[in-house]
Specification:
Helix content is 38%, strand content 7%. The strands form six sheets. A two-stranded antiparallel ribbon has the order 1-3. It is mainly alpha-helical and 643 residues long. The longest helix has 26 residues. The chain has two domains: 230 residues, Serine Threonine Protein Phosphatase 5, Tetratricopeptide repeat (Alpha Horseshoe), CATH 1.25.40; 311 residues, Serine Threonine Protein Phosphatase 5, Tetratricopeptide repeat (Alpha Horseshoe), CATH 1.25.40.390. The N terminus is likely disordered. It starts with 5 loop residues before the first helix and ends in a 10-residue tail after the last helix.
């Protein structure tokens, strides 16, 4: 939290009794300011008002938190050590329990409704009172107001994405508001989106193109952040979950108001594409951002293989690199890294705090392309039927897989993102104190079978599936003693430039079924692929795919863009929301969670897929339930379908 030091700066506000938190009955929406004199004091001078500004930021959700970020552990991308294993697990299991099907309406898991509405309420108090600060210059007041409008828009968007149509809270209610006034109803999806976009449009001109002081203000809202958020909001609104969702026909307010538009509108994709382009023009054209590339190690002439891997790993895990548009300074990665990292240095094998508590299912390993840049199921040169066979690595594989080691065919000849994202039995794990790759045999590698260093050895630690998540672990982390693991901490990235490029490509392809739009979309997909060490879509599919013309149709290119997002943004908390807005939960949850046979020492038996869990999908799983207690006290609020 180097930049905002939010926790320290909001401590003085703890003394402002009752000003922010007002709970009970339906009081997540009871936005009556209850301490007028106290509020007056909070906005009496600049040095007091800035504390309230930081309080508005303090409601940012805890992205990247193992147990509380639904996008990490509530879906099918990451799995965790089972609860009740007899060990003290250093995270709560709400997200994991959602993945296991335990979500409910009586006590919803990861129920962000209250906290996000508290954040909105705090933003409203700020906007209503910031004009009273006498020693605040006009330009700074304008900037702070713009920042808080973006935060208010973001909190509304987080609620919309989780719960569907929500009550929009434009202003706080007056002190004398009646009980009936507080019993608000849900606003239609299009109204929610319109208000969120309005807030973002109002904020843009008041925001700086970049922060003024990297040491103190990283994480503060900027113009690129506001525009990128607008792009994401509009792409989400144009997607099938929110655009003509016939499955939600019966979700209506008590007065009959229809909450989901029933006709799909392609024009929303046109608007979304323009929003993406506007954000790109500012990020790339004005600010000079570009897709991150690892600059190399001045001590060692690294191979192209390792340079590409570090480019891909650091695009996510290197603090404030050129690829990152916005990172959440309320969410730091140290805990996630420590609890997901493998012990690589044999000297410190007894260190008990690195337990590999998370893992990726086999289906995520299969998701990545072959080294030819096409899906392994449709690569003419990659034998999908042999993927579970055992193969021995040769010198040609020695910077991806330990030479002469036996591992699954599935782990050979894959795209660079496969190796940058995943650790596996026999897989090289570059870094962690060993940085010279001129002698590949000196590099760390994983041994994951029964009885080996990273194999199954107890019920309270990993492996879980046989695939570890390398992407989260900064390559410069070092095990330095039996009791100490040095971690390169970073704020959790919310929005990267490659994400924006792929949103733009998706919007272009959906906006119009024309060759011109597909050609333009492919330009942005290919920039992301080139950074990942892959050929263009045209070259890859024409030369290697069993469906060489796939990219020439709107539907085919849609599938390619979707898989490109899943690969590029794997383990970043995007898959969970993407497969919902695409309305494709059944397609992905239909493939069960599988791992290798971890209790086997012989590779011939170890590399047999074993069922870990079979997820069930229902229509209701697209949205969170609203707590039943809130519905009881507010008859104007209707429950989501299926809950």
């Amino acid at each position: 939290m180097k930049n905002l030091r939010l926790q320290e700066r909001i401590k003085p506000l703890v003394l402002i009794g009752g000003m922010i938190f007002l709970l009970g009955s339906c009081k997540y929406l009871d936005v009556v300011p209850e301490g007028v004199s106290t509020i007056d004091n909070a906005f009496s001078m600049r040095n007091q008002a800035i504390k309230y500004l930081y309080t508005c930021y303090s409601y940012m959700p805890k992205d990247g938190n193992i147990g509380l970020d639904p996008a990490l552990m509530s879906g099918d991308e990451v799995w965790a050590v089972p609860q009740g294993s007899g060990a003290v697990i250093p995270f709560n299991y709400e997200a994991v329990n959602i993945a296991l099907g335990a979500q409910n309406a009586s006590s919803p898991l990861i129920h962000s409704w209250n906290s996000l509405y508290q954040g909105i309420r705090t933003c409203n108090i700020f906007l209503e009172n910031i004009g009273n600060v006498p020693d605040l210059e006009d330009w700074e007041r304008y900037q702070w107001v713009s920042e808080v409008k973006v935060l208010k828009a973001y909190y509304h968007f987080r609620l919309l994405r989780m719960y569907g149509p929500i009550p929009v809270i434009k202003v706080n209610l007056p002190i004398d508001a009646s009980e009936e006034d507080v019993r608000v109803a849900r606003d239609p999806v299009d109204s929610c989106v319109s208000y969120i976009v309005q807030l973002l449009d109002e904020s843009v001109e008041g925001l700086p193109i970049t922060i003024a002081s990297r040491g103190e203000e990283l994480g503060r809202i900027t113009k690129p952040i506001a525009l990128a958020l607008k792009a994401r909001v509009l792409v989400t609104a144009a997607s099938p979950l929110f655009n003509g969702n016939a499955d939600q026909t019966t979700l209506r307010n008590p007065d009959g108001t229809v909450l989901f538009n029933q006709g799909s509108d392609a024009g929303k994709w046109v608007i979304a594409a323009q929003a993406c382009k506007d954000a790109i023009d500012v990020c790339v054209g004005e600010l000079g951002m570009g897709l991150y590339a690892y600059p190399g190690n001045p001590q060692f002439p690294l191979s192209d293989t390792i340079l590409t891997e570090l480019t891909l790993r650091n695009a996510f895990a290197e603090r404030w690199n050129d690829d990152i548009i916005w990172a959440n300074t309320q969410s730091l990665s140290a805990n996630l890294q420590q609890n997901s990292a493998p012990k690589l240095d044999i000297r410190y094998i007894d260190y008990s705090q690195m337990r590999m508590l998370t893992g990726a299912p086999i289906k995520i390993a299969e998701q990545f392309y072959s080294n030819n840049g096409v899906p392994i199921r449709e690569d003419r040169d990659w034998d999908y039927s042999r993927r579970f066979e055992v193969k021995t690595a040769t010198v040609a594989d020695n910077r991806y897989i330990r030479q002469d080691y036996q591992t699954a065919y599935l782990n050979f000849k894959r795209e660079p993102r496969f190796y940058a994202n995943l650790g596996f039995d026999g897989g090289i794990w570059y870094g962690q104190g060993v940085y010279d790759d001129r002698n590949p045999s000196s590099l760390y590698y994983m041994t994951g079978r029964k009885g080996q260093m990273h194999g199954a050895g107890g019920s309270h630690f990993g492996p879980i599936t046989g695939y570890q998540i390398k992407k989260w672990i900064h390559f410069e982390n070092v095990q330095i003693s039996l009791t100490s693991y040095s971690i390169r901490n970073y704020a959790w990235p919310l929005f990267r430039l490659s994400d924006l490029f792929l949103l733009y490509a998706e919007a272009l392809n959906e906006a119009a079924n024309t060759d011109a739009n597909r050609t333009q979309a492919l330009e942005y997909v290919d920039m992301v692929r080139e950074r990942a060490g892959l050929k263009s879509v045209n070259e890859a599919w024409t030369q290697h795919s069993t469906n060489p013309d796939k990219f020439r149709s709107q539907e085919g290119l849609r599938q390619i863009i979707h898989q490109e997002r899943l690969n590029e943004l794997c383990f970043e908390g995007q898959r969970f929301w993407d497969i919902r807005r695409w309305k494709t939960l059944a397609d992905y949850y239909g493939t069960p969670i599988q791992g290798w046979d971890l209790q086997q020492a012989d590779p011939a038996y170890y590399y047999r897929p074993r069922l870990v869990f079979r997820q069930e999908y229902r229509l209701r799983d697209y949205f969170w339930p609203i707590a039943q207690a809130d519905l009881t006290v507010n008859p104007n609020m209707v429950q989501n379908i299926g809950w």
